[in-house]
Here is the input.
Amino acid sequence: MERMLCLLLFIFIPAVLPVTAQSVTLSTEGPFVENSAVSFLCQFTSQWDPRTLRGWIGPGSNTLISNGASTSRNKYSEDISNAAGSHQYSMTIQNYNSGDEGLYQCQYGFFTSNLITVSISNTEVHPVPPPLIDLAIPVAGEAIDLTFYVPGIRPAARVSFNLTTSTQTVIVSDDAIITNVNNADGRTVTSVVKIDVPGRTEVGDILTITVMVGTYIDSRQWTIKGYFTG
Here is the structure.
């Protein structure tokens, strides 16, 4: 009898299966560019099921998207098209601005991701309009003495320039002199740029100026025209 009882207990005791740890991870690629689209990626280790609760949480612990339902369709959108195969789905914020700064998380099932902080420290504000579009270049026979402004930007501008002859011999290549002034919004600066090339320019000389604000690049070339006769 004791032998049969032991045998029954052995048969009906369930096997202990290994438990795979589940996790949800939030990531994004910076820097964030003001007035552009910003995307976040939510990665999960469990099996994909479209019926599982999904949530996107933004600044102030506010829910931005819940199971695909956006609180503002023109602002927040979700993409789950590759979730089954890639174990990840994404959220895009349109027209990112200072009001979108704060903490972000995503949720899948009972699991909540890490927090990501979006702030002015990882935000770029690019110049509008492009700073070099209306820049007037002196005519031949004059030294180049230019001052222009790159307003309302973050980070401060970096500017380089070079002047070459028509045969591509570099006459001068240097970094511009830049003074940065903090703007009243406390977020951006205005870069005052001065480019000074002493000596006379000749017809056919080519001036190249490049303005860089974070990942933004504006590079333009001007060919020195005929002598001023006025």
Remarks:
- The two ends are 122 Å apart (CA to CA).
